[in-house]
């Protein structure tokens, strides 16, 4: 979409202030490194601390984006109304039973945020435990984090972030009085209760926003008396806390992107020191659940690339005592497992499609829960109770709204508990969903999921939105999206490229899209685009590519490598300054990310490899598609200066006059606006940009 003839003048290119660094004898000059605030840690906590010259640059780019897209304001309003009209405003979750109560969330008509509620197990009056709307009042940003009730149902531990920086403040609420204790605990991560209902364990984040310690807190005692029970000294590892399904143990999970270590605390004896399950071993992953006096461990140990499930005695859970229960089968990726009193349930993926398997512990027999559609999304919903034959799962496809089922493992009976309502209406019969295989240059085939109207012409004339991610082993499901319908109803084909870097086709698919093989991710996305063009689903220049975070890296890479296929690119919080970020070990995610990308500080080959594809470093004097880049000022994951620097270099270097827009949310972080309707305004802006770029802004 060209900017020729517009009355809006692009902002002046950012000032060049060369910064020179030398690594492994290679000199690197960065003209826009000054956009990284030296006081970035302060900015995460206090956005007003942003230096004036950086703020002026971001404000100028925001003003330009607003001015250019002003002509789409009516379209944005229409899209927002459509998007909002597909949301059930007074929606609620299916309550989850726990002892005398069932817990859930509920939205009021017009509310941006949920209420945390409970009802008596067998029916009765609802109790509102926490109203996030009241807590958000007067705040530019508010996001409710965890809300965890104590096992005795007397307390609610809850956390919230009011900057978008993912620094959550933890509070304790007395569920008898509805009042919070005065002692708030800042800069926390996850949390888990011991069985006494008085001892809470939580993760604390250090000054670099890394989960560094697990503390033990006693309800009613000041936080200054909290005790460190675990400290992680390797900045490359994350920490989480949780409970086994049996409620018997608290779990401290320590991991990076390829290595795990688990420590256990007796939930009935929370003052005891944690004990180790198995010492970390590079590239060995495992996670632990517990039941019937044994541990059930999902692991890739012993070469089980796609994972297996082993058991171990409570007294001796180390590697020497692991015994296979569910053997490793190449190509059958075991995604997760849940142990209940009489059953082991696992979620796995075969040939790109998920399935649930119920394993009866007494007999060893297994039964799948079957589904009929060609492509779909499936998830296990966790529960609170252990001694039960009932599990809950969610199901959807690109044409089928989400459904929540309860499944009785003893009888095989499936009960529909909730179906996603689309108040403005949705007729699945109007749409087609398909999955094609795109041939990659190296002989692999890339799955591509498609959604379009039955009457959309497949003669190459249709515009197409192609979404991709491709990192960390994350699989993008072929799930129902009400947001996609606004484009599809206007003639778009909506497509998801299941590129390498995800685990869509097993662990091998992930391994072939990281570190030395990272460029496969980019090549797969281009192969998907080429296959869609060859199949007449669209044509060259009619594709709008979209990706966020690590998927934003994908957007930057394909813009450099194959921009001629695309009419426009939407890069949400894009990880585009890969080399500089991986060289900056003070940033929150840099050490934990080295197993994913390589460590360019220690490894010259990793330096050269990342330099070869890092989108910012490879901006060239060539034409680029229209680009919309979105950033969040307080984003701790992909810092605001990555898209800011990228756009600055593009504006100074590219040879075309196509649109180049940067929009930085000055009140939010990685996820954008937190309110469910405010987020839809951002979606509407993205879709208006896409429609503008393919000439359908009047549709």
How much helicity do the residues have?
A: 10-25%
* End-to-end distance: 16 Å
Mind telling me the CATH class of the domain at 19-85 and 432-693? Alpha Beta
How big is the Rg? Answer: 25 Å
Strand neighbour order, sheet with most strands: 30-31-33-32-34-35-36-37
Characteristic terms for this protein:
single chain, about 700 residues, alpha+beta, Methylamine Dehydrogenase, Chain H, 8-stranded mixed sheet, serine protease, hydrolase, protease
Description:
The protein has 699 residues and is of the alpha+beta class. Among the domains are: 19-85 and 432-693, Alpha/Beta hydrolase fold, catalytic domain (Rossmann fold); 139-276, Methylamine Dehydrogenase, Chain H (7 Propeller), CATH 2.130.10. Helix content is 19%, strand content 33%. The strands form 8 sheets. An 8-stranded mixed sheet has the order 30-31-33-32-34-35-36-37, sandwiched between helices. It has a 7-stranded antiparallel sheet with strand order 7-8-9-10-11-12-13, with no helix packed on it. A 4-stranded antiparallel sheet has the order 3-4-5-6. The two termini are 16 Å apart.
């Amino acid at each position: 979409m060209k900017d020729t003839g517009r009355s809006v003048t692009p902002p002046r290119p950012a000032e060049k202030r060369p910064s020179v660094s030398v690594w492994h004898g290679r000199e690197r000059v960065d003209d826009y490194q000054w956009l990284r605030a030296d006081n970035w840690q302060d900015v995460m906590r206090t956005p007003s601390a942003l230096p004036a010259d950086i703020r002026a640059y971001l404000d100028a780019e925001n003003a330009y984006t607003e001015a250019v897209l002003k002509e789409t304001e009516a379209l944005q309003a229409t899209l927002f109304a459509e998007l909002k009209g597909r949301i059930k405003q007074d929606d609620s979750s299916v309550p989850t039973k726990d002892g005398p109560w069932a817990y859930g969330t509920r939205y009021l008509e017009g509310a941006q945020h949920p209420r945390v509620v409970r009802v008596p197990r067998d029916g009765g009056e609802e109790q509102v435990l926490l109203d996030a709307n009241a807590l958000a009042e007067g705040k530019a940003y508010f996001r409710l984090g965890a809300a965890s009730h104590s096992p005795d149902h007397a307390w609610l531990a809850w956390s919230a972030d009011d900057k978008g920086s993912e620094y959550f403040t933890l509070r304790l609420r007395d569920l008898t009085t509805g009042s919070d204790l005065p002692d708030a605990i800042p800069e926390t991560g996850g949390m888990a209760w011991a069985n006494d209902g008085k001892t809470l364990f939580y993760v604390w984040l250090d000054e670099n926003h890394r989960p560094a310690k697990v503390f033990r807190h006693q309800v009613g005692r000041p936080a200054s008396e909290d005790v460190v029970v675990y400290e992680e000294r390797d900045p490359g590892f994350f920490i989480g806390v949780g409970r086994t399904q049996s409620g018997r143990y608290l779990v401290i999970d320590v991991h990076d992107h390829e290595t795990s270590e688990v420590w256990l605390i007796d939930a009935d004896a929370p003052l005891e020191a944690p004990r180790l399950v198995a010492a970390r071993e590079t590239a060995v992953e495992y996670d632990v659940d517990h039941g019937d006096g044994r541990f059930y461990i999902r692991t890739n140990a012993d070469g089980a690339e796609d994972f297996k499930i082993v058991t171990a005695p409570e007294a001796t859970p180390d590697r020497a005592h692991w015994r296979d229960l569910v053997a490793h089968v190449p190509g059958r990726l075991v995604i997760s497992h849940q142990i209940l009193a009489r059953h082991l349930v696992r979620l796995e993926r075969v040939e790109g499609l998920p399935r649930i398997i119920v394993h009866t512990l007494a007999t060893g027999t297994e039964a799948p829960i079957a589904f009929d559609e060609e492509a779909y999304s499936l998830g296990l919903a966790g529960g609170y109770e252990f001694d039960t034959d009932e599990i809950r799962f969610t199901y959807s496809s690109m044409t089928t709204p989400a459904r929540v089922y309860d499944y009785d493992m003893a009888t095989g009976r499936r009960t529909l508990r909730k179906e996603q309502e689309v108040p403005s209406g949705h007729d699945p019969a109007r749409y087609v969903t398909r999955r094609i295989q795109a041939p990659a240059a190296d002989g692999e085939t890339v799955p591509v999921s498609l959604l379009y109207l039955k009457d959309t012409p497949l003669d190459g004339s249709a515009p197409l939105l192609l979404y991709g991610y491709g990192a960390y082993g994350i699989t993008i499901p072929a799930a129902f999206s009400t947001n996609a319908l606004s484009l599809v109803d206007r003639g778009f084909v909506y497509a998801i490229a299941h590129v390498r870097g995800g685990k869509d086709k097993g662990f091998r698919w992930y391994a072939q899209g990281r570190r030395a093989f990272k460029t496969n991710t980019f090549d797969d996305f281009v192969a998907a685009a080429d296959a869609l063009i060859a199949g007449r689903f669209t044509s060259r220049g009619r594709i709008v590519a979209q990706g966020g975070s690590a998927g934003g890296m994908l957007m930057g890479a394909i813009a450099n490598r194959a921009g001629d296929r695309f009419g426009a690119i939407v890069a949400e919080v894009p990880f585009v300054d890969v080399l500089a970020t991986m060289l900056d070990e003070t940033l929150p995610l840099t050490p934990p990310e080295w197993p994913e990308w390589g460590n360019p500080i220690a490894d010259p080959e990793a330096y050269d490899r990342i330099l070869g594809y890092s989108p910012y470093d490879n901006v060239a004097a060539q034409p680029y598609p229209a680009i919309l880049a979105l950033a969040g000022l307080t984003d701790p994951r992909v810092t605001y200066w990555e898209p800011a620097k990228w756009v600055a270099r593009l504006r100074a270097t590219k040879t075309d006059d196509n649109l180049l827009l940067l929009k930085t949310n000055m009140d939010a972080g990685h996820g954008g606006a937190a309110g469910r309707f405010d987020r839809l305004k951002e979606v509407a802006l993205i879709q208006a940009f896409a429609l503008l770029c393919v000439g359908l802004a009047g549709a």
